[in-house]
Every structure is written in structure tokens, then in C-alpha cells.
Amino acid sequence: MIRQPFLDGWTVGPKLGAFEAPTPESAPRSVRLPHDAVRDLPRSADSDQGVHTGYVPGGVFEYAKTFDVPDDWREKTVRLEFEGVYRDAVVFLGGDAVTHEPNGYNAFEAVLDPYLRYGEPNRVTVEARAHRDSRWYSGAGIYRPVHLVVADPVHIPLDGTRVTTPDIDEDRAVVELATTVRNASRHTRTLRLTWTLHSPDGSDVASGTAPVTVLPGTDAVARVRLAVDDPSLWSTDAPVLYEARTALATEAGDVIDTDAAAFGIRRLQVDAARGLRINGATVKLRGACVHHDSGPLGAATFAAAEDRRVRLLKAAGFNALRSAHNPMSRAMLDACDRHGVLVMDELTDTWTRSKVAFDAAPSFPERWRHDIAALVAKDVNRPSVIMYSIGNEILELATPAGSAWSRRLAEEVRAHDDSRFVTNGINGIIANLGRFREAGGDEASESAAADPNTMMATMGDMMARANASELVTASTEESASVLDVVGFNYAESRYELDREHFPNRVIVGSETFPSRIEQMWELVERLDHVIGDFTWTGWDYLGEAGIGRVDYPDEPGYTPTGTAGPYPHLLAGCGDIDITGFRRPVSYYREIVFGLRTDPYLAVHPPRHHGRLTATTPWGWDDTVSSWTWDAAHGAPVTVDVYAPGDEVELQLNGVSLGVAAVGAEKTFRACFETRYRPGELVAIARTGGSEIGRCTLRTAGEVGLAASVEESEVPVDGLGFVAISLADADGVVAVDADRLVTVTVAGDAELVALGTGRIRTEESFSGPSVTTHDGRALAIVRPTGPGVATVTVTADGLAAASVSLTVS
């Protein structure tokens, strides 16, 4: 069998109708997959997709590639495996339609056999489209990897081997394997499957074999149960992975196909008295919701970028991710398996009622079984996946029809995989929009009609009362009852209430406001039936532009706009980590709330905004930056926040005490100081019972220059290089108040594929080669073009250039 990446040699351009004449603007251009067709399109305030996509337009796009088809493929089956095409993908070969996949997140196969022209070049084209079909930035195009597979007509299809571990003891685990064999020939075939399990060190730990007879044009499933002695269990602290290797051979012993699947051995349990247990140990989910885009890369999915996101999120204190609101990429799932991060993988944002004009709701009644099968097939072997979410804030959930759909979907998931838990992100208010006057009042009802995000942001305490109302209790009871774990979005007011009303109910905070994490986590820790919290969001994202922004109402021309950020807002602005991978102050506050950090953290309000009122949303934080380098006059007033555990914090400047403040006087885990800006060294010392438990130091930057550093000096040829750019002194202290335009060039065996910052309001492109730093920082991402060496050089007017090199292997 041949299975190889099918990423190079593609072109992309606008899809033209049969009677449309090409123009210079529509000329196809060369691209390498994965690729996001809309990332670099011109943005404008009058984009018909508006704030949802960050004012990025949609479109219809055609990808094309010509490849050779030798004569000796006549006796083979040839297919393309697409991990995801957004959206309504149609694959053509030589102008003939091969397959159609409406769901932009499903993996699918295009079997090319009926349309191939042997002994000559063949042209494959793929149509993709995006237009007012999502409430966030979706991207468009062939944004996930593609593989070309040339196999025997009798073969193991995509996701053909399923591995489960239904029986685990301390000294032994049973691994159950089920392999599908597909016969695309005209003859009945009897073959032999051999399975071998490999331990993390590569040694064989168990094996088995079985014959399998497959009738023409059908699939057959062969199974085996293998025992592994003294198994090493997978957990978040020890993400041990085994591998199942499968060989399909003829009766003569010739191997005609192989398959490999990584898996982990772990046991899941959940109940209202002991919460979630993994391998018998209780686990509280320190969760983050994440969208599928990769910031400066747009929606293009690269394994290196997904691995980096997972690593940085775990380093920031998260042990679980919720894929919102669509199935997670295979690359991110691989990273979660490797790094020990738990996953709630979500099916969809809509069922039968639309949220935006051209979303997937109209086809849902015909496609739901197919979509569930695709989700489970992708996830079933992965130890990181512990929950399937069947939806998010479903509009019809509180109706009789919605209850029936809830049950139907949950049971279909269980029919495919009953080894994991089923949940749903329930928002009781959104599920009752039609009856909202009764539950929430006229003012909130009017805002709901305009924008649900604005409604939730403006309701305040009314939202908690509405979620705890009898209306929500009664109307969502059946839909909640079909779940193993009830996910609540912004409904912490139900946590204690449901312990009384529904004593067997297990709850997870499937989506919560980041500004209230200290309240959420206290409930999670105190209540056994509440198994965790998923903040919105762990990593900032494109679209839903400005929902976490900080505004200054005294700005000339300021007009309240609800949660919708006016153009040119591009990012949501609500991530603990910004789109470049830089941790924002809220991330350190959360780490302290989680009990993972004893050192305090210094968060300084910019002196230039001192005394100004701010307007924020519940998804936002504030305007603080961890810096003591400011373009401010000596003696300028400045507010300093210190996040800390313990009882009190002392603040020192240049060795002189500025006083002691109690922790938690205004907000849990925070002490606040009013002082004057003077360059030097600012130190916060946290104490409990008079004893120091940790300290944090900020220093004023000296002479500032350009700095560049590569995260990994050696990059695989199919990987990415991440180059951090900063305006910093010789000790690495960044000047956050002196942003300037920087330009990046790449020489050698790589190319610049993305350049960006965490600034949420910008008109600059991610395609480079120049960008204005934000808080003194930027990130360049380079992609190898072959093995060798690449040099990345950063320049800025008036500063010496900075260069870094990386080896491509």
C-alpha cells in the first residue's frame, strides 16, 4: 500500500461559473496544503459576514492539482483521504463529480477508481465555500491535511481499526481490537489479519491472528481480545501510549495492507457522589474551550501548531479541552494523547434550528447519523477523549421535539461508542428564547432578539436567576436526563440547586465566564457532582470579534456596541493565551485559583490610562500588563494589581516598601495598590500567617533593541518554526510601551507563512512581511521547503537587525 501526503502542487482561485469569464484577480495561485483560502482576503467594515468572522469575507474556491496515474494502478484502488474541507466540499476528477461532503469538519474519502485515466496525468479539483454559515471565523478551503492512498482492492479503510480496553485490572488489561476489511474487488477473498501490540518502548506485549472472508463489495469486521500483563495506564500525569499494528495478508502470506493505531489503557467512571474518576482517582477538569483556528495561520491545521497549543495550554494549568463547537482536528487529538490532556469533543453548534443564515441546520435531519459516525470513528481509539458533546446552546432543546432529538443523538453516539460519556452544552436561557419574557423580563428579551452574546453580557444577576428558574428546570429536564454528564453554559446558579432537584445528576461547567473563575472553581472544588469548568476561552481566536475587549468610554466617538467589536476588530480578545501563544494576566490569575502557583503575579494598569473608566464584558479581563517599563513621566500615578494566594502582599519599589495590602479585599486572590511610576525594580511578596510563600519581580528595561528567538532550533521538514520577536534589552526585559513596525525575511530552506501579534483590533495582514508589535511582541511562523538551514531576520527602523537560524531535518 502507498499512503503519502498529497499537499504540494495545488493551485487555488475563486470558483467561476461555466459562463463566467476569468479576470486577472481570479487567476489561480500556487499553494501548499493545508491552506485557508480566506485568511488573506481584504477585510472591510461592510463585510456581509461582519463581526462573526472578524469582518473577513467568504467565498467559493476551487483547488486543483494534476498528478500522474501509472498503468500499474489498474489493479489497485486509489483514493484521497481528506481530514477536513470547509465547507460543502465537492471533489471532481477530470471534471467528473466523485463525492460531496457538506460538513466542513468531517474526514472523508474520495474513491477515484471509476474516473481515473491510466497512463496519463489526471486533474483533481476540490470546491469549497464559506458564507454566513458560522458564528465565528471558520476559514475555508482544504484546511486540513490530505493523503493519497493506493491500495489493494481488499484493504483496511480509513479509521478501520478500533481499539478499546473494556477490562482492566492492576496486573492485566484486555485490549479488544476490531478491524474492518473492505473488499472492492469482484471476488470473494479469504485473508488473514495479524495484530501486534507494542509497548511504549517498542517491545511486543501481545499478538493474535484470525482469518477473515469478505464478500465482493462488502465490509467484514474481524475481532480479537489480547491480554497485556502489568499494563501502564494512561493518565494526565503519565500519558502512556501503546500501539496496535495490524497486517492484512493473503492466504500465501503476502502482506497487502497494514494499519497502526495509538491507544492508551485507562478506566473511566463518573457518578454524583465521587465525580469523575480516571483509573480510580478523582479528577477535576481544569478546562478550556478552544476554537479550531490557529491564529496567524488562520484555519489551516498544522500538526506542529496544534501540538504547540496543547503544550502551552497544559503548561498554563489546563488539563482538559473542549472543542467548540465542532469536532477537534486529528492533529490536536494526537497532541492531547501525547501530552495527557482530556478532551470533550463536540459534534455541532446547531441541530434543526439555524443560528445564522446559511449554517448546517437545514441538512441536519438527513446528515446527523453520518456526522456522529465520523466523529466517533475519529475519536474512538484516543485515551484523551472522555466525553462526546452532542451540541452547544441548542435553540430547540427545551421543546418536546428538542427532547426527542437529544435522546436520539445520545443513543446514536452510544451505539457507536458506549465507553465514553455523553454531554451537551445546555444554555437554559437560549433554549427558552421564545418564552423569555416570562423568565427574564422585557429589557433582556429585547437584547436577546438582537444578539445572544449581548443578552448574556447585559443580564447580570438576572441571568443567574433565569437559569435557576422553574421554567429552565422543567423545560430542560428531559434533554438533560439523556446525558451522562450535564453540561451547563453560564449556569452555575444551577449547581447547588440541582443537587437537591436531581441528586443523581453529574454536572460540568461546559462554558463559563473567565472573569468569574474564582467563583466557578470554588463550586467545582466543593461540590462532588460538579466535575469541572471550561472557560471561554483558553486560547484567543479569530472572529466573534471584540467580545473580550476593553473599551474606554471617554474616547471621542465612543458608542456602546454590546459585545460586537466594531471594525477593525479581528480577534475575540477573551483567551487566557493570545493567538501567538503568549500568556495574558488572566492566565496567571487562573493558575493561582487552581492552586497550581504559589508565587504572586504582578499585573500593572498602563499609566496612560490611569483614572479612566473602562467598559468590559464578562468574557474580558482588564487592561493590565505584566511590565514595569512605561513611556510615562516619573511620578505618574499607576495602579498595580497583585494576584496571589495567602493573606497579604507587600509591594516594594527599588528596595523601599510601598505598603501591605490584604488579599481578597475586593476580589479573591487579588491585592491592589496605588503608587507612582519610577523606573527600577518592583517586587511583590506574598505571605500567609506572616511567612513568605512567594515573590514576583518586574524590572525596567534598559537600552532596547530587536530580539528574536526560535522555540526549537531543529525543525522536521514537515513541521513549523516559531520565532518569537520582541523589543527587549540585553536581559530580555520587554518594552511594552514602544511598539513599532518590524519586517521579517526568511532565507534558505523555509518560507514565512504567518506573522502576527495578539492585538485584537488591527488592519494588518497575517501574511507579512511586516507587522506592528503589540506590547513589544510578535510571532513569525516559518514552514520548511526542504531539508537544510533557514535564517530568519527581523529588522526595524533605527534598530540593529536580529537573526536566528534553524536546521530543517
From TrEMBL:
Residue ranges constituting the DUF4982 domain according to the UniProt record: 635-693
Residue intervals of the Glycoside hydrolase family 2 immunoglobulin-like beta-sandwich domain: 162-266
InterPro entries the record matches: Beta-gal/glucu_dom_sf, DUF4982, Galactose-bd-like_sf, GH, GH2_Domain-Containing, Glyco_hydro2_dom5, Glyco_hydro_2, Glyco_hydro_2_cat
Coiled coil start-end: none
Residues covered by the Glycoside hydrolase family 2 catalytic domain: 276-424
Ranges of residues in domain Glycosyl hydrolases family 2 sugar binding: 62-149
Keyword Cell cycle among UniProt keywords: no
Keywords linked to the UniProt accession: Glycosidase, Hydrolase
Pfam families: DUF4982 (PF16355), Glyco_hydro2_C5 (PF18565), Glyco_hydro_2 (PF00703), Glyco_hydro_2_C (PF02836), Glyco_hydro_2_N (PF02837)
All copies of domain Glycoside hydrolase family, residue ranges: 719-804
SUPFAM superfamilies hit by this protein: (Trans)glycosidases (SSF51445), beta-Galactosidase/glucuronidase domain (SSF49303), Galactose-binding domain-like (SSF49785)
Superkingdom: Bacteria
Family, as annotated: Belongs to the glycosyl hydrolase 2 family.
Name the record gives this protein: DUF4982 domain-containing protein
Source species of the chain: Microbacterium ureisolvens
Highest classification ranks of the organism: Bacteria, Bacillati, Actinomycetota, Actinomycetes, Micrococcales
